Amino acid sequence: MATPILGKLKRLPEMPPAEIRYRLLEAVRKGVEGAVLALGQGEPSDAAFVARLPVDGDAPSPVGDYLRAALGERFYLSGETESRRGLYASFDESFPGARERLVAEAERLCQHRVQLLGIGEVPLGAEIDWHRDPVSGRSWERRPWPSYDLVHEVAPGDPKRVLELSRHQHLPRLGIAYALSGDPRYAREVVAQLRGWIEQNPVGIGVHWHSSLELAIRALSWLWALWFVLPSDELDEATARAVAKSLFAQLDHVHNYPSIFSTPNTHLIGEAAALVVGGLVFADSDRGARWLERGGELLEQQLVRQFGRDGLHAELSCWYHCYAVEFYLLALALAERDAHPLARTLRPAVEHLLEPLLELVRPDGSLPMLGDDDGGRALALSASDYGDVRDLLSTGAVLFGRGDLRQAAAELAAETFWLAGADAGRRFRTLVAPGNAAHRASLVNAGYFVLRSGRRVEDCHLTFDCGDLGRLGGGHGHADALAVTLWAHGRELLVDPGTCVYNGDRIWRDWFRSTRAHNTVVVDGRDQSEPADTFRWKRAATSRLLGAASFEGIDYLAGEHDGFAGDPPGVTHRRRVLYVRDDYFLVVDELLGSGKHTVELFHHLPPEAEVGSIDQLLEGREARLSAAVGGAGLLLSMHSTSPLDVRVARGESEPRQGWVSRRYGERQAAPAVVVRVEAELPLSIATLLTPFSLASAERLPLPDQQSFSLPIWNLGAGKGRSGSGGALAIAIGGGEDAESGGCYDLMLCSPERTELRAARCRARGELFWARIEGGELARLFGARAESFSFRGRDRLERPIALFHRRFDTDFEGASLAHALVEEPSHVRYRGTV
Q: Facing residues of 491 across strands?
């Protein structure tokens, strides 16, 4: 691995002149500051700090009084005693039982037991060492902050663990427990932990001064913790002076060293948001005005630079998009509270950033873990991560008066209450939610697509990733092109495996972002994209959307990528997803190319899934298995033009397979269905995904609801089960005699558009789906369709990119495939459209 300096030298030719100048200047500044800190000259004196505060008369006010005035007048909530009493009473009324939970957590925090990422509760000891990694037991050396390299310097363990603790996001919750209960022990613990941290972290010394984002998040936590304990006698003048001096120094550091060019992503947004919040609260100080100006400029700039047209963050990570949204909500809420002009600029843009969350969120408030997650969040007043994003939707609903956001949020969140005040509940309740319509969402710029039957708990929600690794270097992207995730009947059924770790274990880092860790296809053991470093890629796949359309009762998505197009293996992976609403999903994988290759298809299930036995039929070209996850079930039926080898892996290490990380820092063994095919290309594999409720007998996938491969005639090659050119035909429902009549669905695929004959159909095109009722053609869908006849009667007048037609009435109509396809076109039919 190249050293960081050599890596930057190699990147010099790629850097624009502005970046080179900025980096050189910053390097000089860091060098000078590092030398000053090494000489012990970095800590400002108390007198120098107090002298810079606004004066009251001939002398500065006591620092405690200044904090109470600034936070009491210009924070999110009023600091007046009567306002506080009314607020706390309203909280108890709005969130019954919350006080008891907060007090219980406060007791654990007083014992120095803290929840840490996905690791769980960790003991910090009687005397907290803020540089000690509680997992490895080793401590980070204390030296001037410019000397650290947290990506490559991992000897004490993953730096994220020790940094996460020093974000101090547990302190506001400890402060809330004090405010609601009046128990002085909780305020005393807040003050003790603040003072202990300050004593161990003099200005500029130690790992906790290295990252401006960490300082920014810590500053936000301190401001909220301080607001809750302001009435306490524990916040004496000496403490107020020590805390304010460190807080101002941290915000100064963020102002002086924002993550421009080095990590121009959510780091920069978080830093800017903290500058805006600190600047608004301390607006009467000279530094506050500078923070506010710089932070406001950066927030406005990053709205243009870091987000696509559909509102999703450019790194294409759901988790990091949540970070960005929350930082912007924090800045906007306070700017509106203080009637600052910045609010007018931010308001419409921040509302737009909520749209991707509204589309991607599942009925339980969770998101598919697309891209990296780092396990944390911007402000943890109640929830400690983005495992449930309904608090962001709840806040958005109140701030923007949106009924659809209220519907997705379901209930008012505690975070919304603290940000918007006691009136938040009334504002939330007055919003009118829309109906429960099925919906296909297209985040085209990001390449993320959602197929949803509704927003009720029992409804289905599938995501299809037809995007790239993301802009800004793709550092938080995964090699997961064309992967899917699936939620149904209240449970996650097909999962994205998560992230697990960044620094400290390169092998696990690379596995969790590999192609084989996702619900997609691997060719010849090769990843679609090849990692170069923890947050960089050596080779990146490019995806292309081929089609997206919604018709009556049916949705269609198709895409392909070039991740296997190099030599070797010279293969194109194309995937189509057909959703027959309320019934099943049909996923068709086509591997295009020549020669013999090994193809692996993966279906990752959650850790708690129970997988049944595997039935392999039809000379190995057909396989079925079912899985139960709580009260939900999933039937997987796989059909291939070549024999399949199917097995279930769980928690394997050589090679790694069958792992899920639901939060940064942990991993669990989980079942993964591994489908392996060795075949000459082209190859087609069709997977029928049938979710069902274990509690509803009528939804069980009985034999006549399953799928069966059908013999086909390839009109250039003769009769066979697979024909040539990767052609495949399956019947869905109706039993194995479906072809002879009755009611069933039929799927025909032919990647090379060979003319085929099967089940009384004759067709030429890439994909057809037909519903047969009473032996008659009732509905027909086609993609890249050239011709189709049923029982000798032509049903397609001319070639068309995408179409859907009903045949239950004789009706002259027109259909426009108003979809994202290469050749959108009109066609007129006899029949209902």
A: 488
3-state secondary structure of 352: helix
3-state SS, 376-437, equals: CCCCCCCCCCCCCCHHHHHHHHHHHCCHHHHHHHCCCCHHHHHHHCCCHHHHHHCCCCCCCC
Per DSSP bridges, beta strands 793-794 and 776-790 are: antiparallel
Residue 175 is classified by DSSP as H
**Residue 223 CB: number of other CB atoms within 10 A?**
24
Q: What is the DSSP letter of 561?
A: E
Q: Decide if 316 contacts 370 (C-beta within 8 A).
A: yes
Give the H or E element holding residue 785. Answer: strand 776-790
Question: Element (H or E) spanning 484, and its range?
Answer: strand 484-488
HEC profile for 611-647? ECCCEEEHHHCEEEEEEEECCEEEEEEEEECCCCEEE
Q: Which residue has the tokens 């990692």?
A: 531
- Tell me the CB-side half-sphere exposure of residue 219, using CA atoms within 13 A: 34
Average pLDDT, the chain: 89
Using CB atoms within 10 Å of the CB of residue 567, give its burial: 0 to 12 exposed, 13 to 18 middle, 19+ buried: exposed
Question: In this predicted model, which residue has the larger pLDDT, 687 or 808?
Answer: 687
CA distances from 5 to 26, 481, 514, 562, 622 (A): 15, 32, 27, 32, 54
Q: Residues, the chain, total?
A: 833
State the first-to-last Cα distance of the chain, in angstroms, to the nearest integer.
59
Q: Are 708 and 650 in contact (CB under 8 A)?
A: no
- For residue 448, give both structure tokens: 């993320």
Tell whether the model's pLDDT for residue 379 goes beyond 90. yes
Section 729-738 average pLDDT = 74
Q: Which two tokens stand for residue 403?
A: 């009924």
- Of residues 167, 169, 135, the one with CA closest to residue 154: 135
Q: Record the tokens describing residue 261, joined without a space.
A: 């060019």
Q: Residue 652: in which H helix or E strand, if any?
A: strand 652-653
Please state the rounded mean pLDDT for residues 181-188: 97
The whole-angstrom separation of Cα 380 and Cα 115 is 12
**Does residue 223 contact residue 71 with C-beta atoms inside 8 Å?**
yes
Phi and psi at 660, nearest 5°, equal -140, 140
Q: Cα angle vertex 398, ends 393, 404, to 5°? A: 55
How far is Cα 543 from Cα 368, in angstroms, rounded to an integer? 19
DSSP states of 283-294: TTSHHHHHHHHH
Domains of the chain: 46-253 (no CATH), 512-701 (2.70.98.70), 702-833 (no CATH)
Look up residue 832 and give its DSSP letter.
Answer: B
DSSP-assigned beta bridge partners for residue 488: 491
Residue 62 CA to residue 237 CA, distance in Å, equals 7
pLDDT tens per residue, range 162-180? 999 999 999 999 999 999 9
